[in-house]
Write a structure and sequence with these properties.
Blueprint: H1 2-38, E1 41-53, E2 60-65, E3 74-77, E4 81-88, E5 97-100, E6 126-132, E7 137-143, E8 154-160, E9 173-182, H2 187-195, E10 207-210, H3 220-225, E11 255-261
Parallel strand pairs: 1-4, 3-8, 9-11
Antiparallel strand pairs: 1-2, 4-6, 5-7, 7-8, 9-10
Bound molecules: copper (II) ion.
GO molecular function, one term: copper ion binding
Domain Plastocyanin-like: 48-160, 177-272
Family: Belongs to the multicopper oxidase family.
């Protein structure tokens, strides 16, 4: 009897404590899940190398990433961590990548400025860029050693609004346009010219590229002035590396155009023409 008398309140308080513990564990689990939902980690493994490519119809050598030109697009949400493990597969020069527009709060060593925030990554070496993207927007990355940006080392970095937040405007689809300048002479040629005394200016770029695609000598003006009508690169079927980037849209839909210029030396003005008055453009 005595044991029962003493045991009942004990078992009741034990059950109560167990219940409180269960609720606490549940709350911890929920808060952990909420934290992991809010920000995630994006891992990329990149190899930077020179490769043959025809950005504007004429074959040349470009600096690509994982066999692609322009480099792969990075996409993350505000608050996420981006981790790029970069291996330098160039045989004779160092490399670094600058993440244009990313503030690098707390990670200045990931800013990618050679000899300032980091040593250049030597041929054969691997470096881990790990940083947080804290603001939504359209950004890009580019080589920041010598004229590597001019050699084609760039790509898009798009940051969406944080999980649970909404864009201030609504749209049905989006296009990401990367504008760049392209010379037929190498980036080394540009570099030597710029650092010579007196300086030698490389002149205007031979082509302007949209998402790494341009057409050299195929304009109407070139057709009349140079009699280039027989240039084989101008017979475009759509599958070529230099075939124009086509924006496919559906009627009555709204599209967002993300525009960034990775030009190395040229300054661009962009005009968007809207031929039908019922089409609205908001900038
Ligand atoms: Cu930059």
């Amino acid at each position: 009897m005595g044991t029962r008398f003493l045991g009942e309140p004990f078992s009741r308080s034990f059950k109560g404590a167990l219940m409180v513990l269960c609720i606490l564990l549940l709350l911890i689990q929920c808060s952990l899940a909420a934290t992991s939902n809010k920000s995630s980690h994006h891992f990329y493994k990149w190899e930077v190398e020179y490769m043959y490519w025809s950005p504007d119809g004429l074959e040349n050598v470009v600096m690509g990433i994982n066999g692609k030109f322009p480099g792969p697009t990075i996409r993350a949400r505000a608050g996420d961590t981006v981790h790029v493990q970069l291996t330098n597969k160039l045989h004779t020069e160092g490399v670094v990548i600058h993440w244009h527009g990313i503030r690098q709060k707390g990670t200045p060593w990931a800013d990618g400025t050679a000899s300032i925030s980091q040593c250049a990554i030597n041929p054969g070496e691997t470096f881990d860029y790990r940083f947080t993207v804290d603001r939504a927007g359209t950004y890009f990355y580019h080589g920041h050693y010598g004229m590597q940006r001019s050699a084609g080392l760039y790509g898009s970095l798009i940051v969406d609004v944080a999980e649970g937040e909404e864009e201030p405007f609504q749209y049905d689809g989006e296009f990401d346009l990367l504008l760049s300048d392209w010379w037929h002479k190498s980036a080394h040629h540009q570099e030597v010219g710029l650092s010579s005394r007196p300086m030698r200016w490389i002149g205007e770029p031979q082509s302007l590229l949209i998402n790494g695609r341009g057409q050299f000598g195929c304009s109407l003006a070139a057709h009349y002035s140079n009699d280039n009508s027989s240039l084989s690169q101008c017979d475009i079927t759509g599958h070529e590396q230099w075939a124009p980037y086509i924006l496919r849209v559906d009627p009555n839909k709204t599209y967002r155009i993300r525009l960034s210029s990775t030009t190395a030396l040229a300054s661009l003005n962009v005009g968007i023409g809207v031929s039908i008055s019922t089409h609205a453009v908001h900038i």
